[in-house]
Amino acid sequence: MRDEDEYFDRITGDTDPQLLEVAQEVIHGQTKHWSPSFVKDPMQESLLKIIAAKKKGRQADRAPARLSY
User: Fold this and answer.
1) Non-local CB neighbours of 66 within 8 Å, separated by 6+ positions
2) How many CA atoms lie within 13 A of 62 on its CB side?
3) Helices vs. strands in the chain: H and E counts, helices first
4) How far is 63 from 59, CA to CA, in rounded Å?
5) Would you give the distance in Å from CA 3 to the centre of its chain?
6) What is the pTM of this model?
7) Cα separation of 15 and 31, whole Å?
8) What does the pLDDT profile of the chain (69 residues) look like in tens digits?
9) Sign (positive/negative) of CA torsion 51, 53, 54, 60?
């Protein structure tokens, strides 16, 4: 992430309260709940299972993970 000063230091003057309210409404309307499950990677999970099986000295099931979008 970049330092916020790069962007906000150049802003001068007062903020129009009505525009600020509109901007906050837009941001609120576009904001959604985030969960770590949104970034679940089935390929990584399969790879970790293969690695764990190899560490135990046995062959892992190498069926490809199915992606669901």
Assistant:
1) 42
2) 4
3) 3, 0
4) 12
5) 19
6) 0.36
7) 22
8) 788 888 888 888 888 889 999 999 999 999 988 888 788 888 988 999 999 988 888 766 666 656 665
9) negative
